[in-house]
Amino acid sequence: MQLRIGNGYDIHRLVPGRPLILGGQRLEHPAGLGLDGHSDADVLVHAVMDALLGALSLGDIGLYFPPDDARWQGADSLELLEQVVALVMERGWSVVNLDTVVVAERPKLKPHIAAMRAAIASHMGLDPGQVGVKATTNEQLGAEGREEGISCHAVALLQKP
Ligand code: MG
Predict the structure, then answer these.
(1) Structural domain total, the chain
(2) pLDDT digit string, tens, across residues 75-121
């Protein structure tokens, strides 16, 4: 059996007048902020996609879904994730597990973690037990701590028989 590991990272700005979508869930930010971006700006799903692509040295999501391409404007990132999973599977690989950390001061993500894991798992054909989603604040330090943005780190392990 062959194994490959990949990591992904993404950050999007928090701005007024945009929805806050994380792991396919629409959340309410206490200050009414949402994530800016060309697609739905789901930073968690973007980091997962980059981890999957990275594991197979297939580049990054900017290559497949360029931000200057009108097709991806307002795109549902979970649908883009399905396309990335298809790239992985058509090469004969499957996902062993994913793990992620979302860095956000607010809102509290804990009540939404189970729904995020379930959504990501269902769009990848996985069991939620294969999808780790964790959340941390940045202790009010740096861009995430000042609520200028929300970032996410992800790792993915792939196997091929
Ligand atoms: Mg992104």
Answers:
(1) 1
(2) 999 999 999 999 999 999 999 999 999 999 999 999 999 999 999 99
**Residue 161 CA, ligand 1 centroid: distance in Å:** 31
CA of 27 to the centre of ligand 1 (A): 17
Residues lying with their CB under 5 A of ligand 1, a single-atom ion: 10, 46
Ligand 1 centre to CA of 106 (Å) is: 19
Range of the domain at 125: 2-160
CATH number of the domain that residue 42 is part of: 3.30.1330.50
Give CA–CA dist 102/160, Å, rounded: 28
Which pTM value belongs to this model?
Answer: 0.97
Question: Residues in the chain with pLDDT < 50?
Answer: none
User: Any idea of the CA torsion for 138, 140, 143, 148, to the nearest 10 degrees?
Assistant: 110
Cα(69) to ligand 1 centroid in Å equals: 14
Q: What is the pLDDT of residue 67?
A: 85
Asked whether the beta carbons of 15 and 143 are under 8 A apart, the reply is: no
